[in-house]
Amino acid sequence: MGQKGWKFQGEQGEFRLEQPEHNSYLYFPLVNEAGMMSAVTPNLHGEITSGHNTFLMEPVSAESLHNSKASRNFWVFIEGYGAWSVSGNSARQNAARFTGEEERSAVEAGFLWHAVTRENEKAGLKARTVSFVPVTDDKIELMRVTLTNTGNAPLKLTPTAAIPLYGRSADDLRDHRHVTSLLHRIFTSEYGIEVQPALSFDERGHRVNKVTYGVFGAEAGGTAPAGFFPVTEDFIGEGGALDWPEAVVANREPDAQAGTAVEGYEAVGALRFAPVELAPGKSVSYVVAMVISGDRIDVGRYAADYLAAGRFDALLEQNRAYWRDKLDTVRFSSGDGEQDLWMKWVTLQPILRRLYGNSFLPYHDYGRGGRGWRDLWQDCLALMVMEPAEVRHLLLNNYAGVRMDGSNATIIGAGPGEFVADRNNIPRVWMDHGAWPLMTTLLYLHQSGDLDLLFQPQSYFRDVFVKRCRERDASWTPEQGNKLLTADGQIYEGTILEHILLQNIVPFFNVGEHGNIKLEGADWNDGLDLAPERGESVAFTAFYASNLMELSELLLELQKRTGKDSLDIAEEMALLLDTLGKPISYDSIQEKRSLLDRYYDAVTPRVSGKKLLLDIRKVAEDLKRKADWAVAHLRGSEWIQSKEGYAWFNGYYNNDGERVEGDHPDGVRMTLTGQVFAIMGGVATDEQTEKISQAVNRYLKDERIGYRLNSRFGGIQQNLGRAFGFAFGHKENGAMFSHMTVMYANALYKRGFVQEGFEVLDSIYRLSADFENSRIYPGVPEYINERGRGMYTYLTGSASWLLLTQLTEVYGVKGRFGDLRLEPKLVQAQFDGSGEAAVETLFAGRMLRVVYRNPQAAEHGQYRVDSVSLNGQSVDCQNDGAGCLIGRSLIEALPADGVHELIVTLGRNIS
Hints:
This protein is α+β, with helices and mostly antiparallel strands.
């Protein structure tokens, strides 16, 4: 795939794209753990930031990438030719594409570096510009420009780096753009230009500012610039522009030398280097550093660490090694080498999401940074595979965001476990939020066997909102802090297990008039936000039902494995375990709501702090009764059929209390979300799952863009959600929304519908890698729009799900309460020419290479695990037909270093 666009080079996922400027909206991420977040395009456009209030370059949206003239430009005045941009971002070069004088150019990129090559044949000059963010503790981006004389005569060149210094909050882009430039204090030093605004004007108020932004540079041997143009209007000249600046075009002498100070103007990091004469075949290089610092910049240190001779190459190699080691924790080897390399980019995406959050890339031009509640848990799915050492700490801290009413904080702080009250005091509850933590925690328990996590104490989140944000508590003040207190003023803590129980039991009682859980502010689909009174999410009622069943089984497993016969919970929670005291009728909506109201009153404004010791088996039985009721209700009341004879689950009720899906005058209405959790959690029977698959293929599958999130509803649906205001086939209204499509595949694999699951995953890959239509670099986008273009690249939770599905379902490498379970669901086409497929992954702190051998070329369903060897020695494993179990102790006994090989031979099923 990708042959008409990018092409992979080598075995490390590096790729090359010729004439990248023929494609709009392309950008590439550059980032480090220190907090530098950049995006770079083929013409070196993009942005550089460390947060919403600290942009070095101007904040950009996707449209800015081809409409704005600002970029990381590097100019060369060529004697006898004139001004030339190494990025192609000049008025002359932009016009050349349409006058038959287009230059040859290419982008090459790898983990995580970006290079642009451009050649001016007429002038006889080639430039290669390499960009990356070093993996150091500094917020810095580096760029090296190498100029090579490709002609037959010497060239006289005058180079000028020119990076506009925006230097303030994204809020100032339109609001007081000029006024905030009056705050700028601009300084020049030996190696460059820095801007330290005197104040910051943003939502935090008018504060004294310390943050400083700088552009510094040197010829590759360490020679400092010859001078500077620090003020934008002077650099471009009257009537000039950043894509044709007078200072370069007229080859003017520098305006300033080291030691100059200027106040109150828009700044540009324009560094003039000394003229150079370049002989044929010879090259010269320049290094430019873009820096964000907490105070005035120690220019001497930065020059020594980043601009000195040899430092760029050393830092670039360090960067490559860092990302290579990070990504080599998971490697797939199948019959499709191109897809295996593509999966390396998918593997990177969850890490990018952890670092960027949901902002700071051109398509992610919303929000102010950070992640939402749902993101915390779904990103952990991949981190368990990629960065397992941190996961326990993250999980434990994340539970501090749970409220005692079963809802949770919606604003996530920068540090682990940091939650704050809603920024704008707007109460909103996403009804699905309570469902995700159990799924993530179960994966951790199975991967690690660490059941002790469930009994760790943790506090609860508290703010002004109570009773699932239906009311405000007038007695609460921010000075009390954001932790739930007991009646005697102490911070209340409950076990992680208590938190999980609370999140899943409360929604069971929070039902609408049809007996399904209320939609509230929205569910997973944020666009379903206009049905808070009478809306119901049948889709997530299925998710919560399966969670209750999982919890019931988990409690029994806990008793078996730990010998614990009881568990302690807050005494108020006993109300929710009604079958242990005064059972209510689950068929009665009023009884459910009344019980929940009594619980809300019991925990508002504080809890007693007293605990009850309950029989673990009786609690498990209570949860099972709730789950059984919900499953029977869904199968009996929400299974629908179209006039054409196709059947599936209704997913929603709107704010008028009307069933959303089924036959309609505007056409059949169906949602993919409504099917996924019913299949995944076992609510749908095998027979129903087969019928759902047929209905999805009939109403949602589109050969051009894949599996749509929903069919065409018609109209804007003000009684359901804003999503239907989007044009059909875009974003949450009928696009191929990767997240739910991957989850659909995952659900099919879980239920043994392997060929159907494979077709779904294969469609996502082929759509994403079809560059002629998707126009994206390798990786999975948030969605595919009506034209087949990949949208919102890099920062999507679907990457976590895709990685997890490939590893645990397709390759079948998963945990079972700490032991290793191997249950491959590979189709015959996924084995290579020698009948092998393999994956390298971390398990129990050991790097394993699991190799499946399929000597008889059997299709899935025709093979079983025949034998297993570990490092050449036969292993006894508990074989249950579908797969086999290997004890954790066997894995932990292996040396911690190196890669250990598990050979799994597959034989034909004996019918």
